[in-house]
Write a structure and sequence with these properties.
With 199 residues, the chain is α+β, with helices and mostly antiparallel strands. It has helices spanning 4-29, 32-38, 46-51, 56-61, 92-115, 163-174, 183-190, and strands spanning 132-139, 142-151, 154-161. Helix 1 runs antiparallel to helix 5 and helix 5 runs parallel beside helix 7. The longest helix is centred in the N-terminal third of the chain and has 26 residues, at 4-29. It is flat, with a radius of gyration of 19 Å. 26% of the residues are buried. The model has no long low-confidence stretch (mean pLDDT 88).
């Protein structure tokens, strides 16, 4: 639990971050050269995003809803609505907008938690003899799932599927037909992790 003074200082720092981010986003939004580069670049149609199993911001930028926090009753997100762009065109511009909206929403959530902390639900009780468990979280890149299998008190196996792993096929689809100078924009608009898919 954060003390009153520490919470107030944290809220002030977060407010500063929020103001700086809002100014930066406005500058990006109104930069004509950037708008020309990102609009229409790296288009990922909704049907393709759905077919390829896109998750998180990449999926929502294409108009495919989904966020673990909206369907996890054990998490403390009452009334949560996932960030989505005003026009889910599925291009670099839409993926940028999702990030900007998510940052503002995240700062507001942290501010709320610092104002009135909540007590998260406890871990689910393990049934006698249960040997498997699955957990999921909404990472910055989308739904991450971890399955664990036990053998007695030892871990027999762990399978982790990150949001990055789920979204790499969508990068390939979005880059189809793009000119070479657009590839870095397309790739980074998904903001995926290379290490998360290193097997």
């Amino acid at each position: 639990e954060v003390g009153g003074g520490a919470a107030a200082r944290a809220r002030t720092a977060l407010a500063d971050v929020g103001r700086d981010a809002a100014v930066a986003w406005r500058e990006l939004e109104h930069d004509a050269s950037l708008r020309d580069r990102v609009r229409g670049a790296g288009h990922l149609p909704p049907a393709e995003a759905d077919r390829l199993g896109a998750v998180g911001p990449a999926a929502r930028a294409s108009g495919v809803p989904g966020d673990v926090r909206t369907a996890s009753p054990r998490l403390a997100y009452p009334g949560f609505r996932a960030a989505a762009p005003s026009a889910p065109e599925g291009d670099v511009a839409a993926r940028m907008e999702v990030r900007a909206v998510e940052l503002a929403d995240s700062l507001a959530m942290v501010d709320e938690l610092l104002t009135a902390p909540v007590t998260p639900a406890g871990a689910a009780a393990r049934a006698p003899g249960a040997a498997r468990g699955v957990g999921r979280v909404e990472s910055p890149r989308g739904r991450t799932v971890c399955a664990v299998e036990l053998a007695g008190e030892a871990v027999r196996g762990v399978h982790l599927r990150t949001g990055s792993y789920a979204n790499w096929p969508s990068v390939a689809r979005a880059a189809r037909g793009a000119i070479l100078p657009d590839f870095p924009l397309i790739n980074k608009s998904f903001e995926l992790c290379y290490a998360c898919v290193d097997r």
